């Protein structure tokens, strides 16, 4: 069997769409489609390949300073700055122009920002689900790791239900912070969408008033909202597909559930059994196919989503194998 890593030199990454159990032959195979390079970098930074990791470190070194550790601070501070702008400029202007009650908008956006920032801080600082040696725990390291556990260079112990390493929170996303990570990304998307709509509306109102200082602040906030949407949108698109198939990003990255047709070995061939040249050629054509039969955790869209959001994760004996 060939030992293929995902071809990081390509400019596009693959994502399989959600499964539909009602379609013919249960749709065990779904064609892979392309998503943006930004999402690829967020999801697929190889946490277990030291040489590639060293190369990626150089991407954040400017003037001899490694800026990567400051990304979580930049994420939190930009979100707080955006909230201040909304509370001090956009909401008062909209309420003054429409007669809406400020308390309603302050409450709505306050709850949205608090939930997003709360999930953000938790995701940054949380134990992602370390497999420690403890009493009366079925996933004791000496007894063998759970099937979906994975080792990260960031921690001494493997992570249960390891998904990926996120540079924006500088933490692994695993069993105990995966849902909070999704809520954080969803909150950022909501903030960005509402921010774009509010900024365009306020810009029209300010054009009539001629307030230069407020116009500059709104223009900067609009740029921030568009950039935030461009970053968080593709990430959420990837995770929607992964959750709907109950596939972890680490499994996706290593092509565990993907096959190809029209190969030198025939159809429905596991991609890791292909030669390097054929693997890369089929990858370039975007013809990797998700095979539901290779994923024992895929129980259909509805149950996959239910398990993700409702399955208990906090019991000490939770292995993450669901």
Summarize the topology:
Elements: E1 13-15, E2 29-31, E3 33-35, H1 37-43, H2 50-57, E4 61-62, E5 65-66, H3 71-98, H4 102-125, E6 164-166, E7 171-173, H5 178-209, H6 212-245, H7 249-253, E8 258-260, E9 269-270, H8 276-284, E10 289-291, H9 301-310
Antiparallel strand pairs: 1-3, 2-10, 4-5, 6-7, 8-9, 8-10
Helix pairs in contact: 1-6, 3-4, 3-5, 3-6, 4-5, 5-6
Features:
single chain, 322 residues, alpha+beta, 8% strand, transmembrane helix, Palmitoyltrfase_DHHC, Palmitoyltransferase, EC 2.3.1.225, transmembrane
Written account of the structure:
The chain has 322 residues and is α+β, with helices and mostly antiparallel strands. It is 49% helix and 8% strand. The protein has nine helices and ten strands. The chain has a four-stranded antiparallel β-sheet with strand order 2-10-8-9, with no helix packed on it. A two-stranded antiparallel ribbon has the order 1-3. A two-stranded antiparallel sheet has the order 4-5. α1 crosses α6.
Q: Per DSSP, what share of the residues sits in E-state strands of 2 or more residues?
A: 5-15%
| Strand order across the largest sheet | 2-10-8-9
Distance between the termini: 27 Å
The helix count comes to 9
Mean pLDDT, nearest integer? Answer: 81
Number of E-type strands = 10
Overall structural class, as computed from helix and strand content, comes to alpha+beta
Helicity, in percent?
A: 40-55%
Rg on CA atoms, Å: 22 Å
Largest sheet properties: 4 strands, antiparallel
Q: What's the overall geometry?
A: elongated
Q: What series of H and E elements makes up the topology?
A: EEEHHEEHHEEHHHEEHEH
Low-pLDDT residue spans:
5-55, 134-142
Protein name: Palmitoyltransferase
Subcellular location: Membrane
Organism: Durusdinium trenchii
Enzyme class: transferase
């Amino acid at each position: 069997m060939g030992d293929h890593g995902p071809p990081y030199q390509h400019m596009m990454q693959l994502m399989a769409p959600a499964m539909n159990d009602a379609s013919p032959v249960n749709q065990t195979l779904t064609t892979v489609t392309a998503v943006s390079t930004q999402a690829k970098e967020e999801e697929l930074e190889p946490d277990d390949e030291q040489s590639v990791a060293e190369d990626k470190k150089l991407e954040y070194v400017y003037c001899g300073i490694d800026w990567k550790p400051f990304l979580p601070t930049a994420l939190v501070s930009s979100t707080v700055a955006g909230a201040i702008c909304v509370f001090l400029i956009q909401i008062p202007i909209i309420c003054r122009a429409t007669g809406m009650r400020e308390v309603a908008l302050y409450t709505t956006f306050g709850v949205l920002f608090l939930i997003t920032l709360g999930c953000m801080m938790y995701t940054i600082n949380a134990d992602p689900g370390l497999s420690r040696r403890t009493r009366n725990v079925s996933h004791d390291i000496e007894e063998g790791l759970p099937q979906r556990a994975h080792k990260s260079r960031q921690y001494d112990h493997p992570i249960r239900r390891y998904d990926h390493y996120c540079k924006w929170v500088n933490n692994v996303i695993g069993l105990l912070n995966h849902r909070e990570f999704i809520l954080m990304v969803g909150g950022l998307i909501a903030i960005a969408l509402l921010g774009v709509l509010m900024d365009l509306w306020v810009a029209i109102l300010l054009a009539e008033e001629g307030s230069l200082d407020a116009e500059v602040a709104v223009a900067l906030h609009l740029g921030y909202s568009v950039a935030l949407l461009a970053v968080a949108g593709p990430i959420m698109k990837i995770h929607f597909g992964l959750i709907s198939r109950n596939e972890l990003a680490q499994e996706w990255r290593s092509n565990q559930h993907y096959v190809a047709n029209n190969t030198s070995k025939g159809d429905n061939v596991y991609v890791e059994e292909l030669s390097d040249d054929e693997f890369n050629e089929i990858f370039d054509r975007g013809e990797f196919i998700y095979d539901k039969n290779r994923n024992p955790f895929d129980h259909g869209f509805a149950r996959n989503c239910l398990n993700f959001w409702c399955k208990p994760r906090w019991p000490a004996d939770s292995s993450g194998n669901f």
